[in-house]
Design goal:
Elements lengths: L1 H6 L2 H13 L3 H29 L3 H11 L7 H33 L8 H12 L2 H21 L3 H26 L4 H9 L8 H15 L5 H7 L7 H29 L10 H12 L3 H35 L3 H22 L19 H28 L2 H8 L3 H26 L5
Helix pairs in contact: 2-10, 2-12, 3-4, 3-9, 3-10, 3-11, 3-12, 3-16, 3-18, 4-5, 5-7, 5-14, 5-15, 5-16, 6-13, 7-14, 7-15, 8-12, 8-14, 9-12, 10-16, 10-18, 11-14, 12-13, 13-14, 14-15, 16-18
The chain binds phenylalanine (PHE).
Phenylalanine binds next to helix 1, helix 2, helix 5, helix 10 and helix 14.
Length: 440
């Protein structure tokens, strides 16, 4: 349950639609789905397994497992890679979650009732152009996240998630039903599901893979930490598969709800990070009981973001507690403050620093701090971390240890082993090389 809460978040509802829009739709979605099932699920199984056997924060779990299996202590850097990735992801995640909180209030106040595309667009621009407002909501989100982290990963999250995910599901269905009534429904579906490979670039492939890792929360130790709390009798394969299905369904429903609205209002599918903050208010503003559904939706989105953000920072918190003798409270406050400060870089990416002259004439030209952070973490650090976990599990763990942990039948085991051992490392390598232009 907690791992599902980690997986389902802004990645599904905010990021998936906007990067699908930026990367041409169908072909991107297809590659994304392939990555989820061929790489995501087996790597998630490997990560849960490493966590359950390591039973510590990711750095020490890797150190411990490497020792148990007689391998180099350098493996602890894999843990570090994840701790750092989680920290940086949270820094921008919190800013976007802040947008969602602010939309709870604007939707609740009826701002979007009967609104047209221009008005909702204007509202979004005004919000993102005001650093102080963004800082305010970013701070609120960081505080509510760190309060829960400071109190420890408790069954509180599991209880919240048990209600949250089904509620989110129902609301997404309501939105899809609304989307069906709009004139752009067929176009929206075509955009999402009819693959046109001429629209996908080598970088698009890298982004589809990065998104698969991001949305499943794998490759950085979040799932490893939760694996450490997983009871011995729980089936790792079944858990991983269920999480992947739930996570993918939410993302696909979000796409099916959003693209019809894009096309029926003549909006731009590739308009970027503001996509859901323009399309969804537009939908809520024009459907029956829209203010009610809209407010409820943004509340659920904030909760979904919150249950993900806890898992982004938990590896770092656990490391400070287990190694530096920090109390949980002190670790949470320290990391919360640091993350908050780095988050300011993302706040300014949408206003003061939307153009960084320093990046001119480099490959980063035209990118913002947020773009760079997101690119490095999702597209490079998570796949790299994930594939190293796959390599560890597939090549360095003893077969008996894997079989004992996974407890699946022979065929399933062989399939998993083949995927982590050969398919994922080769695939990640090819996608990386492809993205830097080796094959073109
Ligand atoms: N999976 C989360 C989402 O989709 C984000 C996340 C990534 C959480 C990595 C934890 C670790 O929103």
């Amino acid at each position: 349950m907690a791992a599902t809460g980690s997986a389902v978040g802004l990645g599904n509802i905010w990021k998936f639609p906007y990067i699908t829009g930026e990367n041409g739709g169908g072909a991107f979605v297809l590659i994304y789905l392939l990555c989820i099932f061929l790489m995501g699920v087996p790597i998630m199984m490997a990560e849960v397994m490493l966590g359950r056997r390591g039973r510590r924060n990711p750095v020490d779990s890797m150190r411990y497992l490497a020792e148990e299996m007689g391998h180099s202590q350098l493996w602890r850097f894999l843990g570090w890679l994840g701790v750092v990735a989680g920290f940086f992801i949270l820094s921008y995640y919190s800013v976007i979650a802040g947008w969602a909180i602010s939309y709870v209030f604007s939707t609740g106040a009826g701002t979007f009732a009967g609104a047209d595309a221009e008005l909702v667009g204007q509202h979004f621009d005004e919000l993102t152009k005001s650093p102080l407002t963004l800082i305010f909501w970013h701070s609120i989100f960081m505080v509510i996240t760190m309060i829960v982290v400071a109190r420890g990963i408790e069954d509180g999250i599991e209880k919240a998630v048990r209600f949250l995910i089904p509620a989110l599901f129902i609301l997404m269905i309501v939105m899809v039903l609304y989307a069906m009534t709009t004139s752009g429904f067929a176009d929206g579906l075509r955009f999402m599901f009819a693959p046109d490979f001429s629209k996908i670039t080598t970088e698009g492939v890298l982004k589809a893979m990065g998104q698969a890792f991001f949305t499943l929360s794998i490759g950085m130790g979040a799932i490893m930490v939760y694996g450490a709390y997983l009871p011995k009798e729980t089936s790792i394969a079944q858990t991983s598969f269920t999480i992947a299905i739930a996570d993918t369904s939410v993302a696909v429903l979000a796409g099916v709800a959003i693209f019809p609205i894009v096309f029926s209002n003549g909006l731009e599918a590739g308009s970027g990070p503001g996509l859901i903050f323009v399309t969804l208010p537009l939908a809520f503003g024009n459907m029956a009981f829209g203010t009610f559904f809209g407010t409820l939706f943004f509340i659920l989105l904030v909760f979904a973001a919150w249950s993900s953000s806890i898992s982004l920072i938990e590896p770092a918190v656990a490391w400070l507690i287990e190694n530096k003798n920090f109390s949980r409270i002190k670790a949470s406050i320290t990391l919360g403050l640091l993350t908050w400060v780095v988050g300011l870089g993302t706040v300014f990416s949408f206003n003061e620093w939307s153009y960084i002259a320093l990046f001119d004439n480099t490959p980063l030209q035209g990118k913002t701090f947020f773009d760079v952070l997101d690119y490095l973490t999702s597209n490079i650090m998570l796949p790299l971390g994930g594939v190293l976990m796959a390599i560890f599990a597939g090549w360095l763990m003893k077969r008996t240890a894997c079989e004992e942990e996974l407890a699946i039948n022979e065929t399933a085991y062989l399939l998993w082993h083949f995927l982590v051992r050969y398919v994922t490392p080769v695939a990640v390598m090819l996608v990386f090389l492809n993205a830097i232009g080796v094959f073109s």
